[in-house]
Design a protein that fits this description.
Structural class: alpha/beta
CATH architecture of the largest domain: 3-Layer(aba) Sandwich
Mean pLDDT: 91
Low-confidence stretches: 1-21
Distance between the termini: 57 Å
Radius of gyration: 22 Å
Largest sheet: 5 strands, mixed
Strand content: 15-25%
Order of helices and strands: HEHHEHEHEEEHEHEHEHEHHHHEH
Number of domains: 2
Number of helices: 14
Number of strands: 11
Length: about 325
């Protein structure tokens, strides 16, 4: 082989090696509290990041997992580059997408995680609809003006009282984690309503004196995505093979849940540390026909349209595909 040929081969090897070296040796994944984040728990329990990155020829890549509370904290961590894959409701993903759209670090959804109704529960027997909420009532939500629950409350208010009054009860919302919100609701002191998610909403209704006021499925006109995994354009561009392996790991986690829900219930208890529920409790919720683990986004466009009309974002999403990276654009999302 001529020297020129050797140089070309050497350069090719250097580029290939450099390409592999550019991939990360860990994937930092952060989940929130609750059953809606079960696929991440399965990924951690089964070491699926390690499995799929190894299968992709990426060597030893470690999944590093943490838990946080609240969508705003999650978005701040993603913007700061402290995490690679986060878990947030569609409203929070829409907010951060609009904020970063058109930049080299545009942040989008990677895939949907679960469709699940959210219930507004109350400890006051006279509250039958949002029209009955009084000025002294306080409503617990995971994040003020950012969480799915906060936006659903505004959508419900607009439907009941008129679009111009969508923000009527926002000043009465209080940011609390799901379990703190339940404790506050059951204490019947400051919090009189709680807009939450599984398993908390089920646990609340099992207590005397608690009743449901609304179901988010009725507000959105059908099942909707409750949570997604999301990532940054910077991480995806720098680690394309790792990104695809992480999506494959997540997709397998969803499949494992749907294959054996009793096993998945035990995984939830093992990883979450939930001491208030049993396998039977969690299994009952997983078998609810209204709860489905799926990577396909549902009714996310309705959130985006409302948030644009309400002034939360300055860019209208032309379709749900604007909000997610292209690897899932072949799915029948909405």
């Amino acid at each position: 082989m001529k020297p020129t040929g050797l140089i070309i081969v050497a350069l090719a090897l250097m580029l290939a090696t450099g390409s592999h070296a550019a991939e990360t040796n860990e994937v930092r994944i952060v989940k929130q509290i609750g059953l809606g984040f079960l696929p991440i728990m399965v990924m951690e329990h089964e070491k699926l990041i390690e499995k799929h990155t190894r299968a992709a020829g990426l060597g030893d890549v470690k999944g590093v997992y943490a838990t946080t509370v609240g969508p705003a904290v999650m978005n701040d961590a993603m913007l700061a580059g402290r995490i690679d894959i986060g878990t947030n409701g569609p409203t929070s993903v829409i907010l951060i997408w609009a904020r970063t759209k058109g930049t080299e670090n545009e942040i989008k959804g990677v895939a949907a995680m679960i469709t699940s109704p959210m219930w507004l529960n109350t400890n006051k027997p006279n509250i039958k609809t949002v029209r009955d909420i009084a000025p002294e009532d306080r409503i617990a939500v995971p994040g003020i003006k950012t969480s799915n629950q906060a936006i659903v409350l505004q959508m419900a208010t607009a439907q009941a009282l008129g679009k111009e009054q969508f923000d009527k009860f926002t000043a009465q919302t209080v940011a609390m984690s799901h379990f703190d919100g339940m404790a506050a609701l059951l204490s019947k002191k400051e919090i009189t309503l709680h807009l939450t998610s599984p398993p908390v909403q089920y646990l609340e209704l099992e207590q005397p004196g608690i009743q449901r006021v609304l179901n988010s499925d009725d507000i959105l006109g059908g099942p909707s995505t409750f949570s997604n995994i999301f990532s940054s354009g910077k991480f995806r561009a720098a680690n394309p093979r790792t990104y695809k392996a992480a999506l494959a790991a997540f997709t397998e986690a969803v499949a494992l849940i749907n294959k054996d829900k009793k096993w998945a219930s035990q995984v939830y208890l093992n990883v979450s540390g939930d001491k208030k529920s049993t396998v039977a409790d969690i299994l009952k919720q997983l078998e609810d026909v209204n709860i489905q683990f799926t990577t396909t986004p549902r009714n996310v466009q309705k959130y985006a349209d409302f948030m644009f009309d309400a002034g939360y974002i300055k860019t209208r999403a032309a379709s749900w595909k604007d909000l997610y990276f292209p690897e899932i654009h072949d799915l029948p999302g909405s």
